[in-house]
Amino acid sequence: MVSKMIIACSQLGCSEEIITIAVVLSVQSIWISRRGIQKGSDEAKLRFAAAEGDHVTFLNVYKGFHQSGKSSQWCNKNYVNYHAMRKVLEVREQLKRITKRIGLVLKSCESDMQAYTTMRLCSSSLPHYRFSLWQPCNYEGFVLHGFNIRLDSFMYK
Q1: Domain locations along the chain
Q2: Model confidence pLDDT, tens digit, residues 30-68
Q3: Which of 9-18, 49-58, 91-100 is the most confident on average?
Q4: Reaction catalysed (predicted)?
Q5: pTM value?
């Protein structure tokens, strides 16, 4: 399903961001969370949080990590799992090579909002892939196929 989304988004000109999001979702949690540091971890997550949801939040974390020179100190300061981010870099490069090999265009969106909109457009055409709505008092959606929210999602709290 992710491969179909990458192909569709490549045709719409946002393949770089979609690959990044797909990889972040495929590795272990990018956040460090241990007992005793929850408050600091939550504050760090809020620095990257995006109203559009976790996908744009993940892009913000990736960009911060990349701009820091892929620094382990930056990860420690921001409660980001350095080993998970190194894995993101590794798998992302593999996906980019595969994408190029099959003839898809690698292009970056002009903004995170464009990436989010394009990703929603691409994924809405895929079967069984739905976006949910967070409402202050309850959670709606994803009843189909026993969906679970990731524990590191902002929607979980």
Answers
A1: 2-129
A2: 999 777 788 888 888 899 998 878 888 999 999 999 999
A3: 91-100
A4: ATP + H2O = ADP + phosphate + H(+)
A5: 0.75
